[in-house]
Design a protein that fits this description.
47% helix, disordered C terminus, 4-stranded antiparallel β-sheet
Length: 321
């Protein structure tokens, strides 16, 4: 049987199959029509995915099984996409790839940072660009699949709102303005100064919090989201309450607006509902597309060989089955 694959330390992403049948590393484990993934390619993808986890999770059999399933499903869908694009004459030009490459590289401070990213991902520029081309193709295919998805009707929006009304419920919230200081003595001083100077002026001058530049305006805070802010929901409007201490410092707080717990109206939620219904329709179209393509495709999975791929730490002895 296929021997264990040795993954060095997880951060190294180096899988080397050490067994007496090296040809098995090139044996197909997945084949969708004419699209093939070898055992070695699968093992490399597995290492890449497990590298993102801590060592205990990476060795967990359940985690390994889940990641393998994700790799299988991703390869199946991408293979179906490639074949469908070919049949429907959908392609990505070299100029489109170069334009997207330029856009992405501009997100990095310099070329060295971009190259460092490639090194961390253990991928060459050519492989990275090939994957980028597939991502662009996937977007084009997705757009084509969803082009007939209709916008929701007013009746659909109304039904969705009524059936999900409770999910739109908003918690009680308050609009917070604060001055954060290092100690209680300074807070007491600022609280006294508020009788002489405006809150925003003192916030800009003394607060150590980032929002000091905006006059101490934090914005809306919902009830039960920040523990040390719980008392402020009982305070009257436009009055400075008791000084509050938190891990961030000592807070002098004023509440300038309040909103009770409520369920927003249909009109308020309509844009969100419309987006959600479109998402559901697109998901349904996508699932139907996959089902249709699978029924007309040849799918091969070597589950035994995939299951035999194991992860070990560097320095462990090779094991044979």
């Amino acid at each position: 049987m296929f021997g264990r694959c040795l993954l060095g330390l997880f951060v190294l992403l180096s899988i080397q199959c050490t067994n007496q049948q090296p040809s098995l590393s090139n044996k197909p484990v997945l084949k969708i029509n004419e699209n093939v993934m070898s055992a070695k390619e699968f093992a490399n993808k597995l290492a890449m995915r497990l590298r993102e986890l801590d060592s205990l999770a990476a060795k967990d059999p359940n985690v390994n099984s889940r990641v393998k399933d994700e790799i299988i499903n991703s390869f199946i869908v991408r293979s179906l996409m490639i074949d469908w694009a070919l049949k429907n004459k959908i392609s990505v030009s070299d100029s489109e790839v170069e334009t997207e490459t330029t856009r992405i590289r501009a997100l990095y401070p310099d070329d060295l940072a971009f190259r460092r990213m490639l090194a961390e991902e253990s991928t060459s520029f050519a492989d990275w660009q090939a994957n980028l081309k597939l991502n662009l193709l996937e977007k084009k295919v997705s757009t084509e699949i969803n082009k007939n998805v209709a916008n929701p009707t007013e009746e659909e929006i109304k039904i969705y709102y009524n059936e999900n009304k409770e999910s739109f419920r908003k918690k009680e919230r308050v609009f917070v303005q604060q001055i954060v200081l290092k100690d209680q003595a300074r807070a007491e001083y600022i609280k006294a100064e508020l009788k002489k100077q405006p809150f925003d002026v003192l916030a800009k001058k003394y607060s150590i919090a980032p929002e000091s530049v905006n006059g101490g305006i934090v914005g809306w805070i919902e009830k039960d989201t920040v523990d040390f802010f719980s008392p402020i929901f009982k305070w009257p409007l436009n009055q400075v309450g008791d000084i509050i201490t938190s891990p961030f410092g000592v807070h002098v707080i004023k509440i300038t607006k309040k909103e009770p717990e409520r369920i927003p109206t249909l009109e308020e939620e309509k844009p969100k509902i419309k987006r959600r219904i479109i998402e559901l329709k697109e998901k349904s179209a996508y699932v139907s597309w996959i089902d249709k393509e699978l029924r007309s495709s040849s799918v091969f999975k070597d589950i035994e060989l995939i299951s035999s791929l194991k992860i070990e730490t560097r320095g462990s002895q090779n094991e044979k089955r």
